[in-house]
Write a structure and sequence with these properties.
two-stranded antiparallel ribbon, 3 domains, alpha+beta, 15 strands
Length: about 500
């Protein structure tokens, strides 16, 4: 990430630079271009590029792409700051009176919703029956500023038409050496591919168009700090995002310069956490802060093994603490009736009297169902199951046999893990775990106490899951005690 801007409310954003000339979206894009251009000023080559105003190719997705942006980008000029005419100190201004600036950056971007001034419908109508690999090029000159713009339509398959707007010198529209590889299954199920030609400028565009999306995917899903550090504080949420972006930037840099090409995001996060915890920084406040962690004096293999085991040690310690706590709690607990699985109270109601009958109906008195209240099994409740798509009873939930009492029900468990289960019913395969409503108590279940049963099918389902998880934790704890932790 080179540059980013925090979006504020509608009226504060109108006070930003370039808004009065081009509007909100195009002004935001121009500020991003201004902030990210000529990055890497520690390198002499980049300093020379900034001094000589070398043009750069800016690539934007459909949120940024518009004719207004491409035209105004070519009308940006440098205005020196101060009276010494120093070429290093300047600011950008839009001057349409001067017309097209030959030293301004070039631009190419996809056009979807911001199609004002762009012949999107005409291109789609003309290319509707064209084969895949074909493209259409239209060129024009803006009347007020004299900027030459190009409208480009491209079909990578026989159905979809992609539209792009670009400045004239952004690249060549002739077929390039970087084709699109279309993949499809053959009659035997094997994956085949064929090359689909495309303009050279689109080859360069699609080579970098997914960089931001890939970066966000690594930060949001592979690292996932926002999912673990939950908060309602917007500023803490932004700090979490910045930390995640910094970690992924460092991860990408290490993958680019190191020989460890197959290192995952989680492995890198473990090693980074180890370095942060076992750093050589001073404990006191100093006017000379350190920004460099010296390398370890250990052999490379020993250092790698030490870092790789850090995450495993943390998981083992957390698991050991959790199980020891549960064992101590269950040893000191009394076998007394308690309320289990009564579901969530109404979201906006403070009156608990409506849940009295349901809570009383779920008092556990069966010794065979000794419960484990401290074990977290996630959210398990009943919801409507799959609906029928055909016949007069369409949009009605399909009735299936409950996994506890075997009676037909339209309800299923709402947990994501339970929804992935597959069950056969009436020679058909359905997804989900069928369960009766939480208010229904079955008296014919001999294995759960028969007429003395006071548990609903949902409560029994929850207790069985807790028991399975407890047995799994107990087995892992015994395995550790028999074979040792391995870290002594």
């Amino acid at each position: 990430m080179l540059f980013q801007e925090i979006q504020r409310g509608k009226f504060p954003m109108r006070k930003k630079k370039f808004f009065t000339e081009v509007g909100t979206t195009a002004a935001c894009t121009l500020r991003l271009i201004e902030g990210a251009e000529y990055c890497g000023q520690r390198q002499k080559e980049r300093q020379l590029a900034k001094k000589k105003s070398r043009r750069q190719l800016v690539k934007g997705d459909s949120w940024f792409g518009s004719v207004k942006l491409a035209e105004n980008l070519k009308c940006i000029y440098r205005k020196p700051i101060g009276t010494d005419e120093d070429e290093a100190n300047y600011k950008y201004v839009i001057c349409k009176e001067k017309g097209c600036n030959k030293d301004a950056h070039e631009y190419i971007g996809a056009v979807k919703t911001s199609s004002g001034g762009f012949p999107k419908k005409d291109i789609e109508r003309i290319m509707k029956k064209w084969p895949s690999g074909s493209h259409l090029v239209l060129e024009c000159t803006t009347p007020e500023t004299g900027v030459s713009l190009v409208a480009l339509g491209y079909k990578y398959n026989s159905r979809k038409v992609l539209c792009f707007v670009m400045t004239k010198d952004a690249g060549s529209t002739a077929p390039g050496l970087e084709p699109y590889y279309a993949k499809f299954p053959d009659i035997f199920g094997n994956v085949k591919q064929r090359k689909v030609q495309r303009p050279a400028v689109l080859g360069r565009y699609f080579g970098d168009s997914d960089k931001i999306d890939s970066h966000n995917h690594c930060r949001q899903f592979r690292l996932g700090l926002e999912k673990h550090w939950l908060t309602r504080d917007c500023w803490f949420r932004l700090d979490t995002t910045f930390i995640g972006q910094t970690v992924i930037d460092a991860y990408r840099s290490v993958n680019n310069q190191s020989e460890l090409k197959n290192m995952t995001v989680m492995n890198f996060a473990d090693r980074l956490s180890w370095d942060c915890v076992h750093n050589h920084f001073s404990k006191g406040i100093s006017s000379k802060p350190q920004s460099f962690i010296p390398p370890s004096a250990e052999p490379v293999s020993a250092a790698l093994i030490r870092n790789e085991l850090f995450h495993d040690r943390m998981q083992e310690a957390a698991s050991r603490i959790t199980f020891d706590y549960l064992e101590e709690q269950h040893e000191n607990a009394d076998l007394v009736p308690r309320t289990v699985g009564v579901g969530r109270p109404p979201r906006y109601s403070n009156d608990s009297s409506t849940l009295t009958s349901e809570a009383e109906s779920t008092i556990a008195t069966n010794e065979s169902l000794y419960s484990y209240p401290s074990i977290d099994i996630g959210d398990h409740d009943v919801t409507d199951g799959e609906t029928k798509s055909k016949g007069a009873e369409s949009n009605r939930s399909t009735k299936r046999a409950c996994i506890i009492c075997k009676m037909k029900t339209t309800k299923v468990c709402c947990n994501a893990g339970c929804k992935r289960n597959t069950l056969s019913f009436n020679q058909k395969v359905y997804f989900g775990t069928p369960l009766c409503n939480s208010s229904i108590i079955r008296k014919h279940l001999n294995e759960y106490g028969g007429p003395e049963n006071k548990l609903s099918c949902l409560a029994i389902h929850r207790e069985e899951l807790r028991k399975i998880k407890y047995e799994d934790m107990k087995e892992r704890s015994e395995r550790r005690r028999n074979f040792g932790s391995g870290y002594s």
